[in-house]
Design goal:
The chain is 42% helix and 19% strand. By secondary structure, the protein is of the alpha/beta class. The model has no long low-confidence stretch (mean pLDDT 96). The chain has 2 domains: 134 residues, ATPase, nucleotide binding domain (Nucleotidyltransferase, domain 5, 2-Layer Sandwich); 169 residues, Nucleotidyltransferase, domain 5, CATH 3.30.420. It is built from 10 helices and 10 strands. The two termini are 27 Å apart.
Length: 336
């Protein structure tokens, strides 16, 4: 019997629902983005995000089922993000999942948001030879993990302060660029040049797989303030180039270190920042030198979406992982 799972994702500022068959076949994927709403604030406003999720969730689910050309009764389970994320936003998705679970008498499968980003890779790639490194880089998360198997994902490194995407957003805002900042920095960096301008990244000790981007953010902001106070023009393109170079170099360095130390020759990546073409290029270039194979989701699957939740839920369901009507939301927590 086919497994037909509805995946619901509402952890931040995208309301998404998707129908996924047997963990790999995407029957539908509906995403309602709030970027235009939060752009004027320069970042996501939790209360505004939660209200918008509440407004959109039923329509998004109904459209996902309609586009999948199935009936609600054909669903065999519901996967839903329950952590980490904005509590109010998560609760909207969880409440909708509970309602459907009761009415259709099918199980709820709780999915960790970062697990979803990892499993987006299984929609397009055949990956069965564990262990595999997993890099998640987004606006709220920067984590490096060892994907041992479908029940065990071991986090070996994470950001101690700002996530990479958060640093991109805050620096972009200081430069007067639009939100989200990552794509804007990447766009301007393409026209920048390598100069004497270098922004340092915290090393955090030999052998550490953790990340820190708050110092970079502060250094860039201080540099911009200093240049302006002295009456100098700032070249946005060159600053963007240096910022992107610093962040990408820090991320690639940790991945290569983990690959060498653990002897793992495959890495999957996920999260909004991994749509940065320069990051993927650098990973692939360094990987070619050591035999590290790099796998990435394509296009929309890099960002938050219901497909990744539906896919992850399928594999968790194989091992009997289920939630119940007491399922709650959590703002933080390592991958489960």
């Amino acid at each position: 019997m086919d497994s037909i799972i509805l995946g619901i994702e509402t952890s931040c500022d995208e309301t998404s629902a998707a129908v996924v068959k047997n963990g790999k076949t995407v029957l539908s994927n509906v995403i309602s983005s709030q970027i235009d709403i939060h752009k004027k604030y320069g970042g996501v406003v939790p209360e505004v995000a939660s209200r918008k999720h509440l407004e959109m969730i039923i329509g998004v689910i109904d459209l996902a089922i309609k586009e999948a050309e199935i009936k609600k009764e054909d669903l065999t389970a519901i996967g839903v993000t329950n952590q980490p994320g904005l509590i109010g936003a998560l609760l909207v998705g969880i409440t909708a999942a509970k309602g459907l679970s009761i009415s259709l008498n099918i199980p709820i499968i709780p999915v960790h948001h970062l697990r979803g980003h990892i499993y987006a890779n299984l929609v397009e790639h055949e990956l069965t030879d564990f262990p595999i490194l997993a890099l998640i880089v987004s606006g709220g998360h920067t984590s490096l993990a060892i994907w041992h198997n479908h029940l065990n994902i071991e986090v070996i490194g994470k950001t101690l302060d700002d996530a990479a995407g958060e640093a991109f957003d805050k620096i972009a805002r200081k430069l007067g660029l639009d939100y989200p900042g990552g794509p804007e920095i990447e766009k301007f960096a393409k026209h920048g040049s390598k100069t004497d301008l270098v922004f340092p990244i915290a090393k955090l000790g030999k052998g550490s797989y953790n990340f820190s981007f708050s110092g970079l953010k502060s250094n860039v902001i201080n540099y911009i303030n200093k240049m302006k106070s002295q009456g100098h023009n700032i070249v946005i393109e060159d600053i963007a180039f240096a910022v992107q170079e610093a962040i990408v170099s820090a991320v690639v360095e940790k991945v290569m270190l983990a690959s060498e130390n653990y002897g793992i020759k495959k890495v999957v990546i996920g999260g909004g920042v991994t749509s940065n073409k320069y990051l993927l290029k650098r990973l692939e270039e360094e990987g070619c030198k050591t035999g590290l194979q790099v796998y990435a989701p394509k296009g929309i699957y890099c960002t938050d979406n219901g497909v990744m939740i539906g896919s992850a839920a399928y594999y968790l369901n194989q091992f009997g992982i289920k939630g119940d009507l007491f399922l709650n939301a959590y703002s933080s927590g390592d991958i489960k």
